[in-house]
Specification:
One of its GO terms (molecular function) is RNA binding. This protein has helices at residues 2-11, 25-29, 134-153, 159-168, 187-197, 215-226, 279-289, 307-314, 330-343, 366-391, 394-400, 402-406, 411-414, and strands spanning 178-180, 202-207, 229-234, 237-241, 294-297, 320-324, 347-350, 355-359. With 428 residues, it is α/β, with parallel strands linked by helices.
Length: 428
Amino acid sequence: MLLLAGLLRRARPPRRPSVRRLSGLLDRYGFVPPASLTPHSASDDGGAKKRRPKKPPYRPPSSLDRGGRPAARSDLLFDFRFSYTESSPGDKPIGLREPKYSPFGPGRLDRPWTGLCAPAVDTTLRDAHADDPAPAAERELEEARRRERERVLGEPLTPAERAFLVSKCQKSRTKKQINLGRDGLTHNMLNDIHNHWKNDEAVRVKCLGVPTVDMQNVCHQLEDKTGGLIIHRHGGQLILYRGRHYNPKKRPVIPLMLWKPAEPVYPRLIKTTIEGLTVEETKEMRKKGLYVPVLTKLAKNGYYASLVPMVRDAFLTDELVRIDSKGLPKSDYRKIGVKLRDLVPCIIVSFDKEQIIVWRGKDYNGTIQDNTQKTSVSVLEEESAGAESENGDQEQASSDWASDECSQLSSSDEMPDDKSAISEADSD
């Protein structure tokens, strides 16, 4: 048996390699695979479609992306500044805190940014021997702006029209209001005023804080930059009229600032020695100023229109004046000190312990201040008389402006040519 099994095993043919058999379902049902499952090159069939390109990654919308649009062009005939009441073209800084990044955004405005403003006139000299074209061009712009304002305002309002607009803008009739705070009249506020003028002929402006020290400058800048007319004033509340021929559809293009530019570096306010005094006398005066009786205490976001005449009256008897400014931000009472220096005028002694200490100086003469006040009051009376004669009925106009005359306690309302205060100076 064992021999027979061995012979049979030897006689069995060798195994063939297994062959993979395909299923017969392909022939029975006629299934044709799609082209995507059969790998082939693009050269095999010239009509084959190319792959769909990938979509670009999602980018969130941004106000800095102009999308190929050209830069905005504005027809406003003045230099664009962040604040028109808290900065003055005559005050020259000694440096900048950052490079000259335009607060309007890159490529959004056709005017260059100088670090302080976006000038309407290109002041770059093309020739070293040529005269500076800026003064003549600025005078032309100012004259053109005056003519355009007179055209839009049209004929003066009658007393009845003025009284109607004033009553319409009172707090009991409407809640619409523009708040003017520590930054003063900013550039973006011009756009808010024109938005209010789209539906109403007049808008109420409420002024509080640092700018109220010089209310005359606030009123002048509001009328000059907006082209409107202040028809009523009671303390820090103003009513700004747009004019008879104002067309909301033809309002000026006002490009908006996207961020607040950094303040430039100004000279130090408090120096080691006061001009005309020695170091010992300066130290003694600063120590003495902290013990002088307080003239007044400033409230946060208050109305400071009576501050300048109070300081002037105090200088008639005292050489040092101390103003308590506890609770106010450091930048606020420094700006107030600068305004007092320019409007009184006086010399800043110290800001220690949140106190504003000012000195009248050695050459102070009270009679000069009295004469200046009298002449300024006479000028204001002549201007008000001329305005009443233009309007016609003097009795009704005087009743409308009664609250105005009662609120003219600030020296800024009396001095027609005072300079506006500069921005916050460099900290000590």
